[in-house]
Design goal:
With 516 residues, this protein is α+β, with helices and mostly antiparallel strands. The protein has helices spanning 12-18, 51-60, 108-118, 156-162, 237-246, 257-266, 302-311, 314-322, 351-360, 377-388, 401-409, 432-435, 447-458, 462-479; strands at 31-36, 65-67, 74-76, 79-86, 89-94, 134-141, 144-149, 176-177, 183-184, 196-202, 206-211, 228-233, 251-252, 270-284, 367-373, 392-398, 415-420, 482-494, 498-499, 514-515.
């Protein structure tokens, strides 16, 4: 019988931190505290898809494969070997001698139970497309599994490396029941095999991870060095910076450019501007999900969408606000992802053309609209400034990600600026296919685009994949369902005591961080 690693009482580090004490943060107490403004109510990767959880999932759980940070090649992690049997079947040999945080042994039962749970329609996982390609998993022997794909899916290895952590086989039956008698999967314990284990969750406030002293030797993740890592929610950038300077926090990111320059000039902390997989985009309701009356939903008119595109100086926002590593982009994907092309219709900054298009669409004096956003308010305010110059007045509806996501899914946000990090997957299927295959985030709803993406997502011929992604991406931009804005270049700021190196996939690897 498995001995589950239970959520125990808070360790002293967390208690003092949350009560306002800063003495226990930092090198002297072997406790690295990192912070963002995001709230994490559930510390489970399948049931919380915010970026912060993606980061903590890499710390707490292992996946079957590991993608090398520099070469992008796949390496063994929980699986030691793998082989495509045919276009829809993968066999994987599993590593022996690995233990979960609760002390139980890892084997094929855990992979089978995890994967067969998450593919079920009622599993309630947050990001269904991460597993929609998988049909079932079977046990061939104690340390060998076979994954059956529901369709040909050439990006399967990418998802096995980046999105599918393994839980203990018996953990799913421990979920508490809700009022209707259905299992609430978000109530299971946070048990993995990773270099850190979660010891405390204070929903919306902090999550504490302690070093897994029994982490298996030889992992490509390396051996964890820092004893305790705490994620702490701090709701605004000013407070984060203040706590960084006083030592209550050791690491922050998304620091506004002007603040980053001030911090760098102060010499008190390290400041780095680095590329990430994340991009900013503006969605405009080409599908008419919020209505097809252009007086009430102007974005249903292509001329209005083009007017918006020509009104915004994306390059200026990228270089002047985001950072020197940021670039304006023209296509609905990250440039280095497989299948991503920038050879699509482009919309240069041209306010005069924007005004002409608005007049042609019946808005010679412009119009007023709501714009929804959740991240980097200053970036959206810059967009609003450019729009105002051509007569489009905007009311900013700035809110938490979860609330905005709900409005988007309900079709109630016809004009919104959001971001997407592709779960750090180097394949266009992780972004383009997510937004334009008629799911909840799709404000384009185009059968031709969906068809091209289906072909690209399921062909094993790389030429066919690239050709179909290009067709889809070109039409997305011709119709302007989406206005790609810029790649993110995060400003990181962290204590001088921390030895930390940013990576372009936007997954800070605190398990490789050390004290200087």
């Amino acid at each position: 019988m498995r001995r589950f690693f239970m959520k125990t009482a808070a360790v002293a580090t967390t208690a003092l931190l949350l009560s306002g004490g800063s003495a226990l943060a930092g090198k002297d107490n072997d406790t690295l505290t990192w912070s963002t403004d995001r709230e994490a109510d559930v510390a489970l990767p399948y049931y919380n898809n915010i970026r912060e959880m993606v980061i903590m999932a890499r710390m707490t759980w292992d996946t079957l494969l590991f993608r090398n940070i520099e070469t992008y090649e796949y390496e063994p992690l929980l699986a030691t070997n793998w082989k495509w049997i045919d276009d829809k079947t993968i066999d994987l040999e599993l590593r022996k001698g690995v233990k979960f945080h609760d002390g139980s042994d890892f084997d094929a039962d855990d992979v089978v139970a995890t994967f067969n749970h998450i593919v079920k329609d009622d599993s309630g996982i947050m990001t269904r497309r991460n597993v929609s390609w998988m049909k079932s998993t079977e046990k061939l022997n104690q340390f060998k599994v076979r994954i059956h794909l529901s369709k040909t899916f050439p990006a399967a290895l990418e998802f096995l490396a980046m999105a599918l952590p393994v839980f203990p086989s018996d953990i799913w039956k421990t979920a508490r029941k809700d009022a209707t008698g259905k299992p609430d999967w978000g109530t299971i314990d946070e048990v993995g095999t990773g270099p850190y284990k979660i010891s405390k969750v204070v929903p919306g406030e902090a999550i504490t991870m302690v070093k897994n002293e029994n982490y298996w030797a030889g992992s490509p993740k390396g051996t964890p060095s820092i004893g305790t890592v705490i994620f702490k929610t701090v709701p605004d950038a000013e407070s984060q910076i203040a706590q960084l300077l006083t030592g209550e926090i050791d690491w922050i990111w998304d620091v506004p450019k002007d603040k980053a320059q001030d911090l760098k000039g102060s010499g008190q902390v390290q400041v780095v501007n680095a590329k990430t997989f994340r991009i900013s985009y503006i969605t405009m309701d080409r599908a008419g999900r919020a209505g097809k009356d252009v007086k009430k939903n102007p974005f249903y008119d292509l001329r209005v969408r083009k007017a918006v595109a020509h009104a915004i100086d994306r390059n200026a926002i990228a270089k002047q606000l985001v950072g020197e590593a940021s670039d304006a982009i023209h296509s609905a994907c990250y440039p280095s992802q497989f299948g991503c092309t920038q050879d699509v219709p482009k919309y240069d900054y041209d306010p005069a053309k924007s005004k002409k298009l608005l007049a042609e669409a019946g808005f010679p004096d412009g119009f007023t609209t709501d714009i929804y956003a959740y991240r980097q308010r200053e970036f959206t305010e810059a967009v609003m400034g450019f729009l105002s110059k051509v007569g489009i007045k905007t009311n900013l509806k700035y809110m938490q990600y979860k609330a905005l996501r709900g409005l988007v899914w309900e079709g109630k946000a016809p004009f919104h600026q959001m971001t997407w990090g592709s779960y750090s997957m180097a394949d266009a299927s992780a972004i383009t296919s997510h937004f334009f295959k008629q799911g909840r985030d799709d404000y384009c709803i185009d059968d031709e685009i969906k068809g091209w993406l289906e072909t690209a997502d399921t062909s094993v011929d790389t030429t066919v994949r690239k050709e179909n992604y290009k067709k889809a991406l070109a039409k997305v931009q011709a119709e302007l369902c989406w206005l790609p804005m810029f790649t993110y270049a995060k400003n990181y700021a962290f204590s001088k005591d921390v030895d930390f190196k940013p990576t372009s996939d936007e997954i800070p690897r605190f398990f490789t961080a050390k004290w200087k």
